[in-house]
Amino acid sequence: DPVLRLSGIAKSYNPGQPNEVAVLRGVDLAVAPGEVVALVAPSGAGKSTLLHIAGLLDTADAGTVAIAGEDMTGLGDRRRTAVRRADVGFIYQFHHLLPEFSAQENIVLPQLANGVSRRAADAYAMELLEHVGIGARAGHRPAALSGGEQQRVAFCRALANRPRLLLADEPTGNLDPGTSDQVFGTLMGLVRDTGLSALIATHNLDLAARMDRQLRLDTGALVPV
Ligand code: ADP
Ligand code: ADP
User: What pTM value is reported for the model?
Assistant: First the structure.
């Protein structure tokens, strides 16, 4: 089974109103195990809407979302939330780390919420931080870290509960070009080493070219770049 399958996804905002916007008009996508797909879209094309539907944060008007072969259509909020917490990791342009907690604690907390012991959560958080090259920064709060370091912590947090699918929206879009390039390399290394499947939105065609497959969101549907 694909890790993510979208079939005929349609979504409008303000349906039936004069200001209706049909954002998605039949999105089909299958992301294979271990595959990393680039989602290239100009601002306003609907990539956030698509990522939120794929990650079960929003529902489509039509079509189906299946995660690891399980059809999510018609499932209740409790089951959707459970699948999201267990199987999906999110990364945004801004890190959204909790400012009063250390880097390590930011990666420990989602694990504790998932029932992992403190000891195991601490150990896995350190392993992830070392993997992205910032083990020495584990005890620092986000404000004491550089922008690139903050994003690396956010990557570790997204992976803390060992998801099957990573959804990222401009994961290095807030960094200067040199740092972006380097931090993107770190993200790809982490994804490859953990065998994750990913859908990563970016405006940057050079970054997109480093992924397995490139798709563009064009008038509400996905087309090869
Ligand atoms: P992107 O992430 O590609 O910039 P979005 O998915 O955020 O695009 O938005 C796609 C379109 O839908 C935009 O025209 C946006 O203004 C519109 N839109 C997004 N969210 C809403 C909403 N809650 N209500 C009405 N229109 C929205
Ligand atoms: P929590 O365990 O904090 O309640 P949730 O199940 O609400 O987590 O969310 C799971 C993931 O979805 C988290 O990574 C969170 O950042 C993200 N998330 C939750 N709600 C939203 C939202 N409205 N917009 C974007 N991301 C969200």
Answer: 0.90
